[in-house]
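Continuing the series of single-chain predictions for the mutant panel. This is the parent chain; the variants come on the following pages.
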Amino acid sequence: MRPCVLSFEAISFIGSPSGPKRSKVKSGIHPEYATATVKCACGATWQTRSTVGELHLDICSQCHPFYTGKQKLVDTAGRVERFRQKYAVGGKKTT
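Parent structure:
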């Protein structure tokens, strides 16, 4: 099997050693990308960059149960308990 060797001509065709040439973007068609304030329902705020000036969140990483470690199962009409009974190893199967 022959090793793949690129010649200088192939490298210059792919791009210059300093990197690919960047094309200029069209002016007037791109939205402004500025600093934005993010506010969560829990009261946490932080700064980021966005095309929108202010963002409002219902839940963030500071109050989400998965990230805080306070995750719990919400039992709606006994569904979680029925699931545990049905699929318990060696447990009774309910109908």
